[in-house]
Amino acid sequence: MAWFALFTAGLFEILWAYFMKKSVGFTLLGPSVITILGMLGSFLLLAYAMRSLPLGTAYTIWTGIGAVGAFVLGVVMLGEAATPLRLLAALMIVGGILLMKIAS
User: Where are the domains of the chain?
Assistant: First the structure.
């Protein structure tokens, strides 16, 4: 159950990062509320996962899911650049996440 909570926390991190961008510096109410609720959900699920998972593993996977997910969402939804170097960086983060999961 902890791994499911951690994965879901990572998805909430992607959600709040995207809506933080859409909130235009917290000047738009709807996206700002979604950002705050997404943060709350993400932190609560991360805290639950950390009850049984090692700190380094949980935090690394949580931030990795959020970083790669936000990168993909930025490219797909916001038209951000997908240069070879940025793609390589995202791939390396995914590799680190997989290694951290295997090491646990």
Answer: 2-103
